[in-house]
Amino acid sequence: MNGKKKACVKSRFFGCGWVLLCFWSVVFSARAQVSISGKVTSGSRPVGGVRVDLHRDSISCLLAYTFTDGEGKYHIQTTYAGKMNLYFKALSYEPAHKEIRPGQANMIVDIQLSAGGVEHLQEVVVHSKRPYRLGKDTIELNVQSFLQGDERTVEDLLKKIPGLNIGTDGSIKVGDKEVEKVMIEGDDFFEKGYRLLTQNMSVQPLEKIQVLQHYSNNKHLKGIENSDKVALNLQLKEDSKSQWLGSVSVSGTPITPAFYYGSVNLMNFGKRNKYYLLGTANNNGVDAVSSINHLLYPGKSDEPGQIGLGVVTPTIIDYTPDLPGFDYKRTNFNRDRLLSVNTILNPTKQLKVKWLGFVNPTKKSFYQNILQEYHIKDIQFTNSEVYEFNKRIDNYFSRLELQYEINNRSTLTYTGNLGSLGRDDTGNLLFNGASATELTSTQGYVTNHNLTHTYKLSDQEALVSSARWIMQRSPLDYSIDQYYYEDLFQVGGISDVHQHVENNLQYLGVTSHYVRRQKGGDFMEIAFANEYKNQELVTDFVLQGDNGDQIRPSGFSNQVGLLTNQSRLLAKYTLKRKKWEWTPQLNAGFIHSDLRTNGLARDRNNWLISSRLSAKWEPYRKGKLETDLSFQQTNTEVMDVIPSFYNTGLRNFAKGMDDMATLSSSGVILTYTHGNMLDKFFASLSIGYKRLFDYMSNQSMLNANYNLAQQVLLKNKKVAFYKAQFNYYIQPLKGNCKLDIGADFSDYEAGIAGVGNRKIQSGSHDYGLSFRSVWKWKLNIYTGTRMQFTSFSSESKSRLKNTYSFLNLFVNVADGIQANLKNEAYHFGDFFATSKTYYFSDFSLSYDVKKIKTRFELTAKNIFNNRQFKNAVITDTYQAVTEYRLLPRYIALGVDYSF
Amino acid sequence: MKQYLLFGLLLCASWSVQAQKLHAVYEYIPSAVATFREHVYFGDGVKVAVRDSVPVAADKKEGKSPEGEMFSSFSLVLHTDKNYRNIVIQKNNENDLLEIRSIQGKNYQVTDKFPQLQWNTDYSSTDTIGKYICHKATASYRGTKLIAYYTNDIPVPAGPYKFGGLPGLIVMLYNESANPNYWTLKEISYPYEGSIPVNQGYIYSLPKLSLQNYIKKNDALVEEQMRIMESKMPAMEGVTIERKKVRGTVEQVYEWEEKGLREK
Question: For the whole prediction, is pTM greater than 0.90?
Answer without folding.
Answer: no
